[in-house]
Every structure is written in C-alpha cells, then in structure tokens.
Design brief:
alpha/beta; about 45% helix; single chain; Rossmann fold; about 10% strand; globular; 5 strands
C-alpha cells in the first residue's frame, strides 16, 4: 500500500478511534485487545499505529517480560489479571497469556501438563472476563515464512532494529512447523463464540494495520457525542504586559545547543 494512501485512510480512522475512546471513557467500558502472531508479524507496529493520536490515560499497552521467580509459582493468569482494564480503559496486550499456547511449549518453557491445563482453562477464563462486562478481542497476525525471513534479515542488518532480534527469535526460525502445529491447536481449542480469533493477513503491514483498526471499530460499540467533539472556543490569552512579570529571555536559561542551525 502506498504511504500517501495509508496516511489518508488512517486519518479517517483516527477520527473514529477518537469517538470510540470518548465513548469508552464516558460509559466506563472495559476493553482488552490481544495481539498475537509470530515474531516479526507486526504486533508492536500495529499497536503504535493505533496509539499514535490516542490518550495514554485511556489506552494502555502491556508487554510483559518473562515471569519472575515469584510469578512462576502463581496461578498462570495471575500476573495478567493485574493489567486488565478498569472502567473507562482500553488495554492493548503485545503478547498475552497465549504465550503458553505456542511459545512456551515450543521452547520448552512449560511442561506438557501445564500446557494442557492452560488450553482447558483459557476459554473459561475469557468467559469470566466477558461475563464481567469486558469486551475481549483477539488478533492473530499471520505472516508468511518468506516475509518473516525478509524482516529478520532487515533487523539483522539495521542497527536501529537489532534490539528486535532476540535469541528466542533466532531459535524460533528452526521451529516453524512445531509453532504452526501449536497455533492450529490454539485455534481449535480457544476460538469461541464469545472470544473468537480474528486472523489478519500481516504480509502488508500498512494494510494489516488499517484492517485491524476497522475490525476494532466494528466490534467495540461507540457513538458520536456532539458536545465532546464540538469546536472548543479558547479563552483569550492574558497580555504579558498587564501581568507585571518580566519573563527571562530564552538564551538566559540553560538552553541546549542548536544542533541544526540554518
């Protein structure tokens, strides 16, 4: 997708996201959106695009590191529960409890029994969230092996993106088939009427991001509040000369060097 077309479409969608944001805050709604997919599928980029003009007081991004020694002794879902949305919040999970569906068993980070227990419990857990009034959306961003390899090569050669290439990413390159089998099992056992998996073609990043925003707007009820979006009449700015305050000149402050002089 051409950049100009992407930006034009995104601008229109951002107006709708602003309406959704206002509705969620005003009606005290709770929304949890999960982003899953293979390494380099575009989860973080999609989240950044959604958050670009949204309020960080309403939208939160949760990207948890590996569990601590204490967390490994807790109920598996416990550390995620602490990050679920309260009323008036939208939480975007950059990976989620579904780590135990694919990554952990493939990498040997959990036992077969722990994996089976998770697969049995997760539909019940999500049903409880939904019964509590929470809207739960689950995206799986699909990326082909060829496109993933191209993105990995880009990361490997670009110092700005090197941080994205973890040892687990490198190991996972040799475990594509195993990951695919666990993914298929995840779809079969955790795709429910209440919380279905929404699969996104992620090979075209820009198109995928627009489609995900559209899917969110289709599934989270919102409305236009005319008062909230009416133009704001700004009060007149007070005249400095009437205040009796003599503001110091900029070069009298601890001004940083101008690195880009004309």
């Amino acid at each position: 997708m051409k950049k100009k077309h992407f930006e034009r479409e995104l601008k229109d969608l951002e107006f709708e996201l602003a309406k959704l944001q206002e509705t969620v805050q005003r009606k005290n709604k709770k929304v949890a959106i999960i982003f899953e997919g293979r390494d380099a599928a575009g989860k973080g980029g999609a989240i950044k695009t959604i958050m670009r003009r949204m309020s960080a007081r309403i939208w939160r991004v949760v990207a948890l590191p590996k569990p601590s020694d204490r967390e490994t002794t807790q109920w598996y879902f416990e550390r995620y529960v602490a990050h679920l949305p309260a009323g008036g919040e939208i939480v975007l999970f950059d990976r989620s409890w579904y780590n135990r569906a694919i990554i952990e068993p493939v990498m040997g980070f959990c036992t077969p029994d722990e994996h089976e227990t998770f697969m049995r419990e997760v539909p019940q857990f999500e049903r409880m969230l939904i019964d509590s009034g929470m809207i739960v959306l689950k995206f799986w961003i699909h990326v082909s092996a060829k496109e993933q390899e191209r993105r990995f090569q880009d990361r490997a050669c670009d110092p700005r993106k090197r941080w994205k290439l973890s040892p687990i990413d490198l190991k996972a390159r040799n475990l594509w088939i195993e990951s695919t089998r666990y993914r298929d099992k995840m779809f079969a056992l955790t795709h429910t009427d209440e919380a279905p998996w929404l699969v996104v073609d992620g090979n075209d990043k820009e198109r995928a991001r627009l489609n995900m925003i559209r899917a969110i707007l289709d599934r989270v009820p919102y409305e236009l509040n005319e008062d909230a979006f009416a133009p704001v009449k700004l009060p007149p700015r007070p005249r400095r000369e009437d205040s009796g305050y003599d503001e110091p000149k900029l070069d009298e402050l601890n001004l940083i060097r101008d690195y880009y002089p004309d």
